[in-house]
Amino acid sequence: MSQDTNRKLPLLYLWRRRMTLLGCPANANTTLDGLVSDSKLHIGWLFENYEIAEGSSLPRCQLYDHYRKHCEEHRMDPVNAASFGKLIRSVFQNLKTRRLGTRGNSKYHYYGIKMKDNSPLHLAPNTIHPECFVPPLQQMGVQRNGGNLGGGGGGDVYVDTINQVAAVKYVDMNGGHRKRSKRGHSSTSSSDDRDSASPALGVPTHQTIVNRTNELGVSIPPQQIGFQPNATPAVPYIFTDQDRKGMGKAQMPNVQFTDKAGLLSTISFRKLGLNEGHITKLIEEYDRMCYDVLAMVKSLEFSKIEEMWSSFWSGGCGIKHDVLMALCTLDKIQDHIIEVDLNLYQTMVDVLIPNVLLSELSAGMTQSCRTFGKNIDVYLRKALISGNLNETFIKKKIQAIKYMQQGLKRYTSLNHLAHAARGVLQKDELCQQMYQDYIKVDIMAVHQQAGWICNCDSVMVQHVNNAFKENLQKMKPMSVWAEWLESIVDQVLAKYHDKPSNMVSNVGKQFLLNWSFYTSMIIRELTLRSATSFGSFTLIRLLADDYMYHLIATKIARASNQPLITVTRQDKDWPLAKETKEYIVPPADDHDDDLNVN
Fold this sequence. Notes:
By secondary structure, this protein is mainly alpha-helical. It has helices spanning 3-21, 32-49, 60-73, 81-91, 136-144, 157-165, 191-196, 241-245, 260-264, 267-270, 276-298, 303-313, 321-327, 331-352, 363-386, 391-425, 428-438, 443-454, 458-473, 478-492, 501-528, 534-560, 574-577, and strands spanning 50-59, 96-100, 107-115, 132-133, 169-170, 209-213, 219-224. It comes from Caenorhabditis briggsae.
């Protein structure tokens, strides 16, 4: 192991440790980019659905249940209740924990927080996770309310009141109960346990927690015997006219096949016994298929794409299947198909989210895009395997579509942050509080500490500082904030517009490091001053950092003439890094009958 690798291991461990406390558990293969992206998603979700409200309180188990559902929707592993408590306390400062309810039926609440009035969580059924048991009195409320917990609905007032404060008890995976003290409460010895502990109530004998294993020996989550909440089946989201109007009108660029004559002269092609017409037919049919896929995306018919791919790669495109398989073994054909794919995927992303900051996607549209992005590689892999394509070609195709998945995830995450930040920047009291906290920060002192590392122009730093204060004080709309950030990037890269792409890339990356360092120093100052609006500043900082990243990537993509989704590619990736050389033979003469088998 190299010395550089040894130095990076402690840093990676610390990042994983930090992200785990922020609600993003990481395994050995987790990257830093993935951890940071997941933590931003959690923070944006909290800001979008909850807000500080003095005098209000929410049950801890209810917030944790919402968090688990949020993780399930985004295919992320949730952390335990203790780590979630650390996450929510790091986002919403000065939260207090109180135990509310009647004696024997109380539970812990977060005091000083409430669910936003426009939060979609109000419409979600409030079910209890299978690892929790529900007291009999609360079960009565569930039956009265048609399967929803939380009271209301015209039932017994006393029962409804108790349902709102009924306790849940977590049982470990082995079916054993927590150790209890003589007074019957869960014994806790640390603040972490206090965030996960719940009042101890006797588990009824008819509610037994059982552990089972399937045929493969994999443990099945514990199930409750005697009580099952009424599960509501998932209903497919119905796209609205507003969703369709918000989509982009981008068109897929036409990609020309280069050096066809060179391909015809290669030994590998001539051994296949095919002619130029086969190549032309494949190119035309593949372009037609890509345009059909784009039309399905524009009409939001995601489910039909899998059928389209399966039909094409199984020989249903007007080309014989054996001819299709033979042509896809040629490197030049593979490279052309990958180039067409990347342009298609970039167009698809631009159609779904035409403006990452200003497109106001509905919650259903956002979730549909994320689900589509997570499943599309499965559709493609299934179609390629069923078509018996060679393994190298499948790897290239899958890597290309992963670029789209990563790009779509970045786009939706940034749009999600913009939606949450819009709710902060449109509230007068929040903006004024942020302004009052920000003017107390000595920006020149920050520049003195960061200047010797970043070597930034003090005049530009002061200009950015003044513009930020003006936008904050005047409650400028999101479009003005976007123009302001774009003007900063244009100013930094103005003298590099005619320079090579690698120079633009290096300057842009260095600017991102400088920007991140300055913003972290400002957040540090706000932390030391115990700023009231610290949570709002954290959200704005996340949005600004992500949008700066997007703007720099866009500039690099234009300078290098490549799709935006491929800017962050690694050298080890398949589609764009592998270069092959092919021996060329002269054109076939009359005596070359052994090669010309057309």
